[in-house]
Each structure stands twice: as C-alpha cells, then as structure tokens.
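Internal tracking record. Fields below are filled automatically when a chain is submitted to the structure queue. Please do not edit lines marked as system-generated. If the sequence contains nonstandard residues, flag them in the REMARKS field before resubmitting.
Queue: standard
Priority: normal
Entity type: single polypeptide chain
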Amino acid sequence: MSEPKEPSMSWPSLTSLAEGTEARLRDSAVSEADQALLTALGLVQDRRLLVRKIGAPCIVEVRGIRIGLAEPIAARLKVEPLEPVAAEPARGA
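SYSTEM-GENERATED OUTPUT FOLLOWS
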C-alpha cells in the first residue's frame, strides 16, 4: 500500500510573477527532455530564483547566472513567491 500524499499546493506559474520577484521553484510540468535541460541549468526543485524579465524570453537569475526561458516552458514552472527581505535599520539611527 502506498503512503498518503500530502495535499498539493496550487502554486502560480513563473510567468504570473512581477519582474523583480524572488521565488522558489516548487514544481514543473515539462517533458523529461526539458526537465533534464532545466536541471543542467540549475533550475531544480526548491531552488531560489529572481525574475528579471517576463516575456519572450522569460529571464530568471539563478545563483547569479541569468537564464532565458521560452515562454511556454516558463509558464509550466510552478513557483512559490517569497516574502521580501526586510531592510536592515540604518546604523546610528
């Protein structure tokens, strides 16, 4: 008997995010060949990324490297938008 699965979240697609948004890659619905290519580029589950440009191509930054993705591929990537990091208070304030 298989273990019960956790309820799946309905994550938004990468292309639904605004430019400048940080997110974590949560899932993808791409072919095995496309998945292998994404993995080789560093786009793996739970990896943080920064949306640089939405459109054709969709440009994301992963570990300091910018990657251009075809819009149909980017639309199939499910992400978790991350909360913005709170600004540190100014020193001496």
